[in-house]
Design brief:
The protein is mostly helical. It has helices at about 15-25, 30-40, 70-75, 100-110, 110-120, 120-130, 135-150, 155-170; strands at about 5-10, 45-50, 55-60, 85, 95. A 3-stranded antiparallel sheet has the order 1-2-3, with helices on one face.
Length: about 170
């Protein structure tokens, strides 16, 4: 089916490049032209009316109301396989399809697994890009950095992350 109207919104994170490529192809535009029209300003969007009209760039107004997070979907919902958290060896068999599973696996995995993921900021990256919770990600990143810098133990890092998840989502 043909697309009569499409709004393309600038974004980043998981799937942003694929979304941009898809949008450009559906609008019969070059990716570079869409990227240039969107620019780097927060809230930029592009209205593509049809193939006979030039796309129109605009800035989306800030929201008037606060965003209501649908946090429950991250706790028990099943994330697509490409967005799940895969614990690396020696705990490579552990896969978290949601935040409750992540919390459970983090509590049971080996210290070296936590160190490896924390050193690469894998936990905070997942919270930021998949769960889209910047506050949770910042708190986890502090714990990861303190572990990496030797300012806290693996046990304390694990407890900090699990406690943060419990405080924000599970209690």
């Amino acid at each position: 089916a043909a697309i009569d109207h499409m709004v393309v919104i600038a974004g980043e994170g998981v799937g942003a490049d694929d979304s941009l490529a898809y949008s450009a192809s559906q609008a019969s535009l070059e990716i570079a032209a869409v990227t240039e029209a969107l620019g780097h300003e927060h809230g930029r969007a592009l209205l593509v009316a049809d193939h006979d009209h030039t796309p129109v760039a605009f800035t989306v107004a800030e929201r008037d109301s606060t965003h209501v997070r649908h946090w429950h979907k991250y706790i028990t919902g099943q994330l697509p396989q490409n967005l799940r958290f895969y614990f690396q060896p020696p705990d490579g068999h552990r896969i978290a399809a949601n935040l409750r599973e992540f919390h459970r696996h983090l509590g049971a995995c080996r210290p070296e697994t936590i160190s490896n993921h924390a050193n690469r900021h894998d936990f905070s990256r997942w919270a930021r890009h998949v769960l889209q919770d910047d506050d949770l990600a910042r708190t986890i990143q502090r714990a990861e950095t303190e572990l990496r810098d030797g300012r806290q133990s693996v046990t304390r890092c694990r407890r900090s992350i699990t406690q943060t998840i419990e405080d924000r989502y599970l209690e």
